[in-house]
Every structure is written in C-alpha cells, then in structure tokens.
Amino acid sequence: MSVHRLVYVSRPFGFDSAMLNGILLDARENNSRNDITGALICRGDMYLQLLEGPEAAVEAAFDRIASDDRHTDIVRLLSGPASGRLFSNWAMHDDPARSWMWTQEQVAAGAPTRASEAEVLAVFTRVSSELTDLGSA
Questions:
Q1: Other beta carbons within 10 Å of 102
Q2: I want to staple 87 with a disulfide (CB 3.0 to 4.6 A). Which of 11, 23, 37, 118 is the partner?
Q3: What is the dihedral of CA 121, 122, 124, 129, to 10 degrees?
Q4: Tens digit of each residue's pLDDT, the chain (137 residues)
Q5: Which of the 8 DSSP states describes residue 48?
Q6: Can you give the pTM of this predicted structure?
Q7: CA–CA dist 43, 88 (Å, integer)
C-alpha cells in the first residue's frame, strides 16, 4: 500500500486541555478506522499535525479538520507520497511543545509557513526518532 503524508499548521481557537482531549479522542477514533497514523504537536499558539495513510483517507481527514471550528488559519505545509510511515504505531501521537521548536514570536511571525518541506518533516522525524529511542514507535 502506498503511503500519503500531509502536514498542516493551524492556530487553535479556544485552546484548553478539554478541547485538546476532544480533538485527540476524535482523531484516534477516526484514524484507527481509516488506517491513518500520525502526530499532533500542540501549543496554545499552534497545532502542527502530520497525517499518513491512504491518500483518500488522509485527504478526507484534512477536509474534516479544515472545517473544524477548533482550528483557524489552516495552512497545508506539505502533501505527497512517502516511503513509509513515521508513526506506524500511533493513531495520533500527542506531543507537547518542544524547546527546540519555534518560539511563540517565531510562530506569530509565520515561521512554520516559511519553513521548507524538509524543515517541517525534520520536526516529525525527530519526534519519531525520540519515540523509537524510548521503544514506543
């Protein structure tokens, strides 16, 4: 089966832990059913999410996300075929903000949307490798 990968960034609307838990619950349920894996990096100022799986399922998931009012200013950062999955054991891995990622000021200035596809993918590659090092990917 070919793997399609899509990464987007958005701004949370009304971000709090209850809303995040709702997003993760919905994502894990839908993704398990549709053979989608991925990771969601979430902060008060941005969501950065990677989805991977069958192209039609990934695109349908992105369409649902794009119409979800818990997200604003959604920008697709990359989309296309992938040689394999980075998060094969995660219907949706929840990853906290990382100190090595963009600062709030950099996000506000548009750093995620100016990043190259390689830079965006490197964020998730690093998260995936950390999970592998812990024996959980």
A1: 21
A2: 37
A3: 140
A4: 699 999 999 988 776 777 777 777 877 887 889 999 988 888 778 888 999 999 999 999 999 989 988 788 999 999 999 999 998 887 666 656 565 678 888 988 999 999 999 999 998 888 888 775 555 54
A5: E
A6: 0.82
A7: 23
